[in-house]
Amino acid sequence: MKILGIITEYNPYHLGHRLHLQEAKKLIKPNLTICVMSSSFVQRGEPAMISYQKRAAIAIEEGIDIVIELPLVYACQSADYFAKGAVTLLHEMGVTDLVFGSEDGNIETFLEIAEGIEQDPDTYNMKVKEGMKDGLRYPDACNQALQFILNKEVRTPNDLLGLSYVKEVVHHHYPISMHCIKRTNDY
């Protein structure tokens, strides 16, 4: 059985979200589609423009079978904590495939970076902490650490979030196949 998982905010729902869902379903051909959605507050703590109930109803109308609310404690956090909560819920629901949107569009890039971090997490975490101590924002500190250990960087918002999803799956060895769909326009 194929169970597609996606992580959403739909704040507000737009044609890019529709394209993502259609392409994900075309790619996976799932028996069931589950999404994890932020509640009344979305990532970085902003209030949602539209109620969770209305966004969940739109998701069901658009073809998602089950909508799970991402607890506020994860929804209002950085990409890594947001991903931790969302990916853990999808794993617990038995999702077989996770599909996310990405500016890069190459899942191999994300896997290579996540596996590199997994091989030397102490150095990565130390470099992130050093960067933040020097006044860098968390995403910039992460990139500085990536450049140090892998000579790579991830700069765009959806790529940073996608990398967080992949890191979570790799770290926990979840049996989830990951896929990314290249975004059709700039973030």
Description:
The protein has 187 residues and is α/β, with parallel strands linked by helices. The protein has one domain (3-182): HUPs (Rossmann fold). The chain is 52% helix and 16% strand. The protein is built from eight helices and five strands; from the N terminus they run E-H-E-H-E-H-H-E-H-H-H-H-E. Strands 3-2-1-4-5 form a five-stranded parallel sheet, sandwiched between helices. Helix 4 (79-92) packs across helix 8. The chain starts with a strand and ends in a 5-residue tail after the last strand.
Could you give a short description of this structure?
The protein is of the alpha/beta class and 187 residues long. It has 8 helices and 5 strands.
How does the SSE layout of this entry go?
Blueprint lengths: L2 E6 L6 H14 L3 E7 L13 H10 L4 E5 L1 H4 L3 H14 L4 E6 L4 H13 L1 H13 L4 H13 L6 H16 L4 E6 L5
Parallel strand pairs: 1-2, 1-4, 2-3, 4-5
Helix pairs in contact: 4-8, 5-8, 6-7
**What is the terminal-to-terminal distance?**
33 Å
CATH-defined architecture:
3-Layer(aba) Sandwich
**Strand proportion:** 15-25%
Mean pLDDT: 93
- How are the strands ordered across the major sheet? 3-2-1-4-5
Name of the CATH homologous superfamily: HUPs
The number of helical runs is: 8
Radius of gyration: 16 Å
Overall morphology? globular
Q: Please name the CATH topology.
A: Rossmann fold
Order of helices and strands: EHEHEHHEHHHHE
Summarize the biggest pleated sheet: 5 strands, parallel
Please, how many domains?
Answer: 1
Oligomer: single chain
